[in-house]
Amino acid sequence: MKAQNKAGPGRIVRNKNGDLVMTFAYQTHFYTNNFSEAYAALIGVSWCCDKNIRNIEMELDSMIVINMIKGVTRPSWRMQNIIDDIQRKMHQKNVTISHCYRESNGVADALAKHATTLQKDKVFLHKEDLPKEAIGPLEWIRCNFRPFEDEQKNTLLGATSPHDSPFF
């Protein structure tokens, strides 16, 4: 999709038991993989903030974007406002950020790829409404989900396409 200048941020929000709360697939203009990843993180954390969800653990598979958000690496001028917005929202709602591996990011990856085919943004609140490509990875996650030590945590996971390193 890079050739068509399309990117597809996708995210999944789960509760402390690993159950689906919300997923989304948005279509956006492609700038860079890191831009798409940060934009998707902003959409996800903004949704959680709008719903007054607190104690969020955000997992991304891009260490570059994680380091930008943590202030370890300086973002490009194009990404600065997005990173600033993420940091502000993280501070307001007790959001932590950590790295996850590509293999555990199948739902968000499927949503990101699906997003590049959409004409408008899509939010999914029920498993039955998900694109078929996301169902299998969702079931895999449910079977292999390990609850967090902090039972009050919610998880925001995501990916961006065409970037093939998903985030889930």
From TrEMBL:
<dbReference type="GO" id="GO:0004523">
    <property type="term" value="F:RNA-DNA hybrid ribonuclease activity"/>
</dbReference>
<dbReference type="InterPro" id="IPR012337">
    <property type="entry name" value="RNaseH-like_sf"/>
</dbReference>
<protein>
    <recommendedName>
        <fullName>RNase H type-1 domain-containing protein</fullName>
    </recommendedName>
</protein>
<dbReference type="InterPro" id="IPR044730">
    <property type="entry name" value="RNase_H-like_dom_plant"/>
</dbReference>
<dbReference type="InterPro" id="IPR053151">
    <property type="entry name" value="RNase_H-like"/>
</dbReference>
<dbReference type="InterPro" id="IPR036397">
    <property type="entry name" value="RNaseH_sf"/>
</dbReference>
<dbReference type="Pfam" id="PF13456">
    <property type="entry name" value="RVT_3"/>
</dbReference>
<feature type="domain" description="RNase H type-1">
    <location>
        <begin position="4"/>
        <end position="115"/>
    </location>
</feature>
<dbReference type="InterPro" id="IPR002156">
    <property type="entry name" value="RNaseH_domain"/>
</dbReference>
<dbReference type="GO" id="GO:0003676">
    <property type="term" value="F:nucleic acid binding"/>
</dbReference>
